[in-house]
Structure formats: structure tokens, C-alpha cells
Amino acid sequence: MLLLALCYFFILFFTPEIHCEGTEDLSFVREFSNLHITESLKQAKDSILNLCGVYCIKNTITGAMYIGSSIRIGERLVDHVFNYSSNVYLQYAIAKYGLAAFTFLVVEFCTKDLLLEREQHWLNWLFTLPSHLRYNFSPTAGSPLGVVRSEETKAKIGIEAAPPLGASSPSGGSCGQKEIRRD
Length: 183
Hints:
- The protein is α+β, with helices and mostly antiparallel strands.
- It has 6 helices and 4 strands, in the order H-E-H-E-E-H-H-E-H-H.
- Helix 1 packs parallel to helix 4 (about 90-95) and helix 2 (about 40-50) packs antiparallel against helix 3.
């Protein structure tokens, strides 16, 4: 994963800006720009704080987009901007182009029970575009399915993952309700 992120970092910072047609076909119900200005960001957050729906973060220079969903869109906006709890491609792009180059679009509002279905609809659309126009790794809403991981990353995940309850431990015991000791 680190190697993938480093490769993307070099591509992002050392390739010319590209804008492709098709990205302007995304419809939206609300648009927030000037997110680099504290008051604009606060107004955006407050106006959609407790709303549920699908959103898009769009690079206005390259046209590249990230599509996601949240039951509290306003909080998710702030997470992307300040908490860096976001896709690494998107974070590199924000670092390269600055927050002023991005708009936050509410693609649609929906109920919680339809959220993943609607996000999937928009991800299906996004993944018809060339890969350089999307920041999303996974084509599947709410799932890491489709994310390509290196063998190194798979090995790290396997080593770091705790065994499931009831699985045999390396010492021959069971990993149930008992204390698990890791040396």
C-alpha cells in the first residue's frame, strides 16, 4: 500500500494537469466552494450537518472526483478536510492543488436505508470514467472489494489481524473468551 501511495504521489506531483470531458455530467443538488476560507467551510458544514446522502469532492483543475456517502455529510466533509480520514489519493491532490481547487458537491440526499444503494449508483457512473479522473480505490460502496492490494500488504494484514474467536492459537489453545497473550 505504501508503494502504491508513493507511486501515486509521484504521478500526481510530476505529471501535467489533465482535464477530460465527462466529469461535468455529474448532477448535484448543492455545491460548496471556497472551502479554504474558514467561514465558507463552516457554513457548508452547518448547512448539511445532519443530512444523509451521497457527495462528491471534485478537483476543479483536473476534473478528478471522489464519491462517498455519509449519514452526516457535514461531519464527513470536515473529516476529509481536517482529520485526513480520507483516501490517500485525495489527500495528495489536496496537498498538491490546495483546498481552493476543490468543490464539495452533494449529489443527492437520501434516507439511511438507501444510502449504499445510491452511492453504488454513482460509483458505477464514476468507474466508467478513466482512472485518472477518480480518487476512489474501490468500485463497491461500503466495501473494500475491488481494492487491489500488494502481496506485501496482504501479508501485513494477515500478520496483524487478530485470530477469530474460537480459532486455534499458535500455542495450540483456543482464542475464545480467554485472555490472549501476545509476546
